[in-house]
Amino acid sequence: MIPLALILLAAATRLELVDEVLRIPAGDWRYVELGLKQQAAFVAADFEVQSGSQLVKLELMRREDLDRLRADRPNGVIAVTAPAASGQLLYHVRVPGDYVVVIDNRNTNGNAGGQAAVARLRVALDFGARPGPQVTRLSPQRQFTVILISFAVFFGIVTYSARRLLRGIRR
After folding, report:
1. Which is higher by pLDDT, 123 or 111?
2. Which of the residues 41, 46, 114, 146 has the least number of beta carbons within 10 Å of its own beta carbon?
3. Do 122 and 31 meet the contact criterion of CB atoms below 8 Å apart?
4. Helix, strand, coil in percent for the chain, rounding step 5
5. What would the pLDDT profile of 52-82 be if each residue is shown by its tens digit?
6. Which neighbouring-strand residues pair with 117?
7. What values do phi and psi take at 140, rounded to 5?
8. pLDDT tier, 145 (very low <50, low <70, confident <90, very high otherwise)
């Protein structure tokens, strides 16, 4: 029984990195390092503000961009949530490297202001998630357009073929 439990435990592909409450001063940010140097993973991060500022956001970025953020230089982000009282960030990191998740309590133009926030942050990595797009659906208007175009092409081919066959029979 114990060996079976150990095998099932070893097969777990999800790794919980952070599940804690953070205090983020007004106009400031905190970050969590992601150890993705050897292989790609699916990053799942979420936060919920418990008190204070209701305009907090999560950002996934490369380590180089964090260094630029520290130096107050323009930086890039890979994925970001809208400023809100809670949010969730889901992203499949395909290229191994140094990444961080930043919880940001700065207002939209990056200047200090507002109030401190106390937020619960959860960050997890899933190494077993299948890469690729999540299944989505076309809007009803696009579905209708695809069906109309398909019917037009089908009946065009049938009409052309029937005319050729009739011409061949008449000869």
Report:
1. 123
2. 146
3. no
4. 30, 40, 35
5. 888 899 999 988 888 888 888 888 888 899 8
6. 24, 52
7. -55, -35
8. very high
pTM, 2 dp: 0.65
Which residues are CB-contacts of 125 (< 8 A; sequence separation ≥ 6)? Answer: 14, 15, 17, 34, 36, 41, 42, 43, 44
Q: What is the DSSP letter of 130?
A: P
131 is a domain residue: no
- Output the CA torsion sign for 136, 140, 144, 147: positive
3-state secondary structure 33-98: EEEECCCCEEEEEEEEEEEECCCEEEEEEEHHHHHHHHCCCCCCCCEECCCECEEEEEEEECCCEE
Q: How far is CA 80 from CA 1, 28, 58, 59, 83, in A?
A: 44, 16, 6, 4, 9
pLDDT of residue 153: 96
CATH code for the domain of 61: 2.60.120.680
Asked whether residue 23 is domain-assigned, the answer is yes
Retrieve residue 8's tokens: 């099932």
CA separation for the pair 120, 86 (Å, rounded): 9
pLDDT tens digits, 26-62:
888 998 888 777 777 888 899 999 988 888 999 999 8
What's the structural domain count of the chain? 2
